[in-house]
């Protein structure tokens, strides 16, 4: 393990340790990977309510009359469709059409946006945005001053509604509001999340972290609220077929290969849009697919995906035993000719070829 000094601590590090969290190095930070156990935490979010401290994520403000022009240039989605109070999933393409990062774009107000990026990519993304800012937009990296709590699960809304006079059920999916919550002003309450279980993500100032965390847990006590670690976060997002940067998408994968054509809009030129437009017209040679094992086994990242003849046709990018389905599930890239729903493929697990079938994502149908 690397020296401790190489990793940052999130503001509530000591609180998580006191709750019995196992803290592990992740994306440059010490992060809680589990508290009671991955399956217990996973089921808590699917069926009740749990809270993730994801304060390691990065947040950049982009402001000024040219803010929109800059974000349109560097992201693949169409930012012009946003209005204040709306958020958008997007990606930052690199010069070759690969993905520097996937991110959320929030329109806070006219000429004011917030970009939320992955923790492992904060420095890389910031440098990319600064380098491409020929428009002269005002850029501020507020990552170190911001905490982010994801309150997820079917009981999330009942928990948080106790803490705010704002009608939370009136916030549509991928929308947000700035409101008073738990007596704290200007908390950004966003109807987004990485679990598919419903809920909200709360962005607040670092100095209010402990007050907000404790208020959420007091409000959720009657619903058996629990803190949730990165282990369950991974199985929850995988059941929904959500991509994880560094596994399912990276600098070498294009959004079209990754099934992210829906966030790749060609009505404005953006970085590598010509390359991606050609890819769209000619078709991609490989595609990201979801698969379920039809025999016992657990697929893992980097395992080979084989055809019936035992030839490698791709590789697994994410895999697990689904706590909800009770079977092995995964995602991976295969040659496009094999990327058909119900196609039988095989996963090479410990010198065995385990049968699997390609399925439509998400694995969990709401």
Structure overview:
It contains eight helices and 20 strands. The protein is of the alpha+beta class and 366 residues long. Among the domains are: 145 residues, Probable tRNA modification gtpase trme, domain 1 (Gyrase A, domain 2, 2-Layer Sandwich), CATH 3.30.1360.120; 75 residues, Aminomethyltransferase beta-barrel domains (Elongation Factor Tu (Ef-tu), domain 3). The protein is globular and about 65 Å long. A six-stranded mixed sheet has the order 11-12-13-10-4-14. A six-stranded antiparallel barrel has the order 15-18-17-16-19-20.
Please describe the topology of this protein.
Layout: E1 8-9, H1 13-18, E2 22-26, E3 29-34, H2 38-47, E4 50-53, E5 58-63, H3 67-74, E6 87-93, E7 99-109, E8 112-117, H4 122-131, E9 138-141, E10 146-152, H5 156-161, E11 176-181, E12 184-190, E13 199-205, H6 209-219, E14 226-227, H7 230-239, H8 273-282, E15 286-293, E16 304-306, E17 312-321, E18 328-335, E19 344-349, E20 352-359
Parallel strand pairs: 1-3, 4-14
Antiparallel strand pairs: 2-3, 4-10, 5-8, 5-9, 6-7, 7-8, 10-13, 11-12, 12-13, 15-18, 15-20, 16-17, 16-19, 17-18, 19-20
Keywords:
366 residues; alpha+beta; Elongation Factor Tu (Ef-tu), domain 3; 8 helices; 19% helix; globular
Class of secondary structure makeup = alpha+beta
In helices, the fraction of residues equals 10-25%
Kindly provide the radius of gyration, computed on alpha-carbon positions and rounded to a whole number of angstroms. 21 Å
Strand content: 25-35%
Distance between the termini: 40 Å
Q: How do the helices and strands follow one another from N- to C-terminus? A: EHEEHEEHEEEHEEHEEEHEHHEEEEEE
CATH class of the domain at 4-53 and 145-239: Alpha Beta
Low-confidence stretches: none
**Can you give the mean pLDDT?**
97
Please identify which CATH superfamily of the domain at 4-53 and 145-239 we are dealing with: Probable tRNA modification gtpase trme, domain 1
Shape: globular
CATH topology of the domain at 4-53 and 145-239: Gyrase A, domain 2
Largest sheet: 6 strands, mixed
Number of helices: 8
- DSSP strand count: 20
Within the largest sheet, what's the order of strands? 11-12-13-10-4-14
CATH architecture name of the domain at 4-53 and 145-239: 2-Layer Sandwich
